[in-house]
Amino acid sequence: MAKVTMPQLGESVAEGTIGKWLKQPGDHVDKYEPLVEVVTDKVNAEVPSPFEGILREILVEEGVTVLNNAEIAVIETADDATSEAPAEASSPEPASGPAGSDESPAPATPEPPADADDAPSPAAAPSPTAAPAPVAAAPARPASGADPDARMTPAVRRLLREHELEPAHIVGTGGGGRITRDDVLQVVEAMRTGSAPQAPTPRSEAAAAPAPEVGSAQAAATPSPQPAAGAAGGGITFPDGADEVLVPMTKMRKGIAAQMTRALAVPHAYVHMEVDVTALVRARTAAKREYQAREGISLSYVPFVIKAAVDALRQSPSFNAHWTDDGLLAKRRLHMGVAVAVDDGLLVPVVRDVDQLSISGLNRAIADVAARARAGKLRLEDYGGSTFTIDNTGWFGSNLTMPIINVPEVAILTMEAITKRAVVVETADGDVIAIRPVMNMVLAIDHRANDGAQAALFLRSIKGWLEAVGPETPVY
């Protein structure tokens, strides 16, 4: 049997919490197929299976936190099945059955994947005005070659015990009629609200006759419930008569708080410069329509800034580094952290080897990782190892931000909003006042690693690169 262990999702992450099992015992799982959602202090990630085989046992329930490298599941691989075959062949057979009639480790008909079977059937929202209905009796459980009760996960068994429910009273929607966590929670919710739960439809029966929706007509005619009185902005609701309420921290919020506490020990210093981006705006404007038609995505300013930063980092390698207790740990490869704001916090996924990518390649990589970050679909390789970070705070209209270094890195750069300003321009006829698009940039440095003069030269290099962009600057 192959053991699946808790991966390390980041350099400073020591533990992970099982958010959701995407497969259940008895399900077949391919190598690299998403197996489990893991939640850490700062990120959520789908962890792929390191093996192909049958998931035989889940060792850590959903909601439980364990240290990195702790065993969380057991998968039976093809090698395991092969090695067990001779032992089974030599076992004495019952007198009532012919030799070879026992079940083999793998069923003759492969079960459907768990991500399809374990999804609860869509149920219409109960009408607020409808009279409570008694809990519907569960239809007979579909027949299968094995007892589905024996394949329930520890989390499902615990839920049944907590709510004093009998497995025989619940219809399982998992493979072979297995009872899933969602099946139990649906019955619990129906008991709590007094509404009739939707009868789950096993996959084998769904194609033949879809289950009727309970209360769908009333739900379609009923307006969406409005927020209760006392609800405040930002998802905080104050109980009636309360002047304050404690908002529990999410895992991500705890992670951000811990990272900010670590950054508090870093002696930050800042350098700010204005960048005349007239040439950059002109070049992007000239290319963006054709680029959009060709690539299907918008051409952002961010890859241009990353290209400029790559050039500066090559000239000043002490900024492409981590700070350690023993001093500066310089990095040969350039891995760019890209700050992405999400609904409940901030993520900094990594685009690796940015010096090997064109502006178009960077644009695609950034769009891809940002979209997956907002959708909660980041992968293991998207975390950890960044050597420098860029934060596009101008996206929100900011003109001047004092960024916090993404420790253990030693610098972070912001690109602020591009705004039209009156600036003094030198011409052959003397100085004139012109309206130009200008972008502020702020570089925060760890003063233990670099000094102000080095920081100014570094940022001046980025400024010079961006102001020199022209039609000849290659996008591909």
Total of helices: 11
CATH topology of the largest domain: Chloramphenicol Acetyltransferase
In terms of quaternary structure, the protein is: single chain
* CATH C-level category of the largest domain: Alpha Beta
**Coarse shape:** elongated
How do the SSEs run, as a string of H and E? EEEEEEEEHHHHHHHEHHEEEEEEHEEEH
Number of domains: 3
Helix content: 25-40%
Strand order of the largest sheet: 9-18-17-16-12-15
- Low-pLDDT windows of residues: 87-148, 192-197, 199-233
- Please tell me the overall pLDDT: 79
User: What is the number of strand segments?
Assistant: 18
Question: What is the straight-line distance between the termini?
Answer: 48 Å
- β-strand percent reads 15-25%
Can you walk me through this structure?
The chain has 476 residues and is an alpha+beta fold. It folds into three domains: 2-88, RNA polymerase II/Efflux pump adaptor protein, barrel-sandwich hybrid domain (OB fold (Dihydrolipoamide Acetyltransferase, E2P), Beta Barrel); 114-123 and 137-208, E3-binding domain (Dihydrolipoamide Transferase), CATH 4.10.320; 254-467, 2-Layer Sandwich (Chloramphenicol Acetyltransferase). It has helices at 78-90, 114-117, 154-162, 181-193, 203-206, 216-221, 251-263, 278-295, 302-315, 359-374, 452-467, and strands at residues 2-5, 15-21, 28-29, 34-39, 44-48, 53-58, 65-67, 71-76, 268-276, 321-324, 327-330, 336-338, 340-342, 345-347, 350-351, 388-391, 411-427, 430-446. The strands form five sheets. It has a six-stranded mixed beta sheet. Mean pLDDT is 79; it is low at 87-148, 192-197 and 199-233.
